[in-house]
Write a structure and sequence with these properties.
By secondary structure, this protein is of the alpha/beta class. The protein is 33% helix and 25% strand. The protein has ten helices and 16 strands. It is globular, with a radius of gyration of 19 Å.
């Protein structure tokens, strides 16, 4: 018997972008110590979308699993229909039993936001207080909430293409977080005085340019997760003193930002560190107050497995979910 945990079930559990931060941080620690395995995601393009598969194992926790996206159908964007949000499968590595099948939209949002927060925790000064944010969507909301949990953020500048959306976003987040979240009318205004710049869009072309960045800080590129997508231009990469990704092998498949920069001779894979290596101290980190740092995030299956395990444990303890017989 496996426990089916739907999106409605997930909403009943004490899970959030903030509560996901220690889960994701510990998963990167496991990766840095070599007890977590993550295969680069496989994506098969189709005429009407794509199917994507990402497996991983957390040996320290005794679980393995995968996330499966059947992102096909009519419509536009990355979520063509409900199946495009993905489904997580969690297995017990000792017995081989399928423990849970989990609808992955909510916990996927929490995971994505938590990854950025962990990167900010290790790659920005402790007193970083200003953010420049590109995007005013649901992903951006989680990014902002999670990062504010690890840094004393006081002011945020936000740009998105639709004025009404970004103004509504800023009003809502100002009330929710109790900080000054203000809309700007031009994208080049976002990096002004920003200690941390976050790109969380679905853009296929750069929206942040190196010429706009006038001071040291951290750039978190969290939106581009296909080889053909770029949110930051080559100058952002070229001027970086330190470049970090969630995992090099996955970046070689999905990071349009890094793939373009490497193809044009602006950096090389041996100059790019992994976040797990940073967390366990395997690579030296430059002075965070005087360095230009870039973090490229794409989401790892190890993080999906970790979030699935926590969701399963909480649901089982609360008696939430439906037991299903598959064989």
């Amino acid at each position: 018997m496996a426990l089916l945990i739907t999106e409605d079930d997930v909403k009943k559990l004490p899970l959030s972008a903030v509560s996901a931060i220690p889960i994701i941080e510990d998963t990167f620690r496991q990766a840095g110590q070599g007890t977590a395995e993550n295969a680069a995601r496989f994506r098969m393009p189709l005429k009407s979308g794509f199917i994507q598969f990402g497996p991983a194992a957390l040996h320290e926790k005794g679980v393995a699993g995968f996330k499966l996206w059947a992102n096909v159908g009519k419509g536009t964007g990355v979520h063509k229909n409900p199946t495009g949000h993905g489904t997580n499968y969690l297995y017990d590595m000792e017995s081989g039993h399928l423990l849970a099948i989990i609808h992955a939209y909510q916990i996927g949002k929490y995971r994505t936001s938590a990854v950025s927060a962990v990167a900010v925790k290790y790659l920005s000064p402790e007193n970083a207080s200003t953010i420049g944010l590109y995007s005013a969507g649901r992903v951006a909301e989680g990014q902002l909430e999670a990062v504010c949990a690890v840094r004393p953020i006081k002011k945020v500048r936000v740009y998105s293409r639709r004025q009404e959306q970004r103004e509504d976003f800023c009003k809502r987040m100002t009330q929710k977080l109790g900080i000054d979240v203000v809309p700007v009318s031009k994208p080049e205004e976002v990096p002004v005085d920003a200690d941390i710049i976050i790109t969380a869009s679905t853009s296929e072309v750069p929206i942040l340019f190196g010429d706009w960045i006038k001071r040291p800080g951290l750039v978190v590129a969290a939106g581009a997760n296909h080889w053909y997508k770029r949110e930051i231009d080559g100058k952002v990469i070229a001027r970086a003193n330190f470049i970090v990704c969630d995992q090099r092998e996955q970046s070689k498949v999905e990071s349009g930002n890094l793939l373009w920069a490497i193809a044009h001779g602006l950096t090389s894979w041996d100059r790019i560190s992994e976040l797990g290596e940073v967390i366990v101290g395997r690579v030296p980190v430059p002075d965070l107050k005087t360095s230009n740092i870039v973090f490229g995030s794409h989401g790892l299956a190890t993080n999906d497995v970790a979030m699935s395990l926590k969701t399963y444990e909480l649901a089982k303890a609360a008696g939430i979910g439906t037991q299903v017989e598959l064989g």
